[in-house]
Amino acid sequence: MIELIAAGLSDVGPVRANNEDCIGSHAPTDPLVGARKGHLFVLADGVGGQNAGEVASATAVETIIAEYYSPSNHTRIEPALKQSVQAANLRIYNLAQRHVEYRQMATTVSVLAVAGAHAYIAHVGDSRIYLWRDGRLTQLTDDHSEVAELVRMRIISRGKMRDHPRRNVLTRALGGRLILRPDFVRQPLQPGDQLIQCTDGLWAEVADEEIAEVLGECEPDLACRRLIQRAVDHGTEDNVSLQVVRVLATSDDPQPQNGRSGWLADIFQRINRS
């Protein structure tokens, strides 16, 4: 089973009255479950009036963790991630339809499963997951926002994302619609790698180079505290949340990859057996 150390911290920030971010993680006590499903880390940044953002983000984190490790869920990591995210989306969507105070609530979500020698990611919104390796920071997720679309269309430069007036307008969010299209990523890992999940309260204020520097200097728990302080010092007006995972040792992957990814591989295996 993969060996790692991890820490997380969520802060309301210096301006906001409520914290609409939510973080959660789970390390199975059953070694068989841990070897098969790995460690799970979930981070969400809620949006919506009348404190509904808090409800959306907390619902996403709780539902995904419970669903991912449910005995009724898929035994393979990537299909289990897909089912968990879809279950959270449906629950948030239904809450918003049934309760007037939750209307139009939604949330970003970044889900990270670490098992064997890989990180498995499911992602919706503009919270981010980065890989730190040998002092360099690489963004593993794509932002689902209007300003990110402008960057992809080469209308504005990446350097102008942080200050753009449309930066907070999401194009995809959990609970926003009944049918959801998350992004899925698989990243090979090696000892010494670090993974960081963070909301835009951090990445919009603290440059990638500064995040990389702190991760290289500190253990995960201290890195979380220092990065939140950096965001506050830089003038963030948002909630600030992050989780940092440091890989100490990898192991054999819990499931053979067979050159294909996730549920597609499972479909091909079923066809080959039939």
Task: Describe what this molecule looks like in 3D.
There is one protein chain. The protein has 274 residues and is α+β, with helices and mostly antiparallel strands. Helix content is 34%, strand content 26%. Strands 2, 3, 4, 5, 6 and 9 form a 6-stranded antiparallel beta sheet that branches. Strand 5 and strand 6 (118-124) form a beta hairpin. Helix 6 (208-217) runs antiparallel to helix 7 (220-233). The chain starts with a strand and ends with a helix. 45% of the residues are buried. Mean pLDDT is 88; it is low at 258-274.
Sheet with the most strands, sense and barrel status: 6 strands, antiparallel
Structural class: alpha+beta
Instruction: Give the overall form.
Output: globular
- Average pLDDT, to the nearest integer? 88
Number of strands: 11
Point out poorly predicted stretches: 258-274
Number of helices: 8
Helix content: 25-40%
Distance between the termini: 32 Å
- Report the C-alpha radius of gyration, rounded: 18 Å
Strand content: 25-35%
**N-to-C order of helices and strands:** EEHEHHEEEEEHEEHHHEH
Question: Features of this protein?
Answer:
five-stranded antiparallel beta sheet; 26% strand; 274 residues; alpha+beta; globular; 8 helices
Structural topology:
Blueprint: E1 3-11, E2 21-26, H1 31-37, E3 39-47, H2 52-68, H3 77-98, E4 106-107, E5 109-115, E6 118-124, E7 128-133, E8 136-139, H4 146-152, E9 183-188, E10 194-198, H5 200-203, H6 208-217, H7 220-233, E11 240-249, H8 262-273
Antiparallel strand pairs: 1-11, 2-3, 3-4, 3-5, 5-6, 6-9, 7-8, 7-10, 10-11
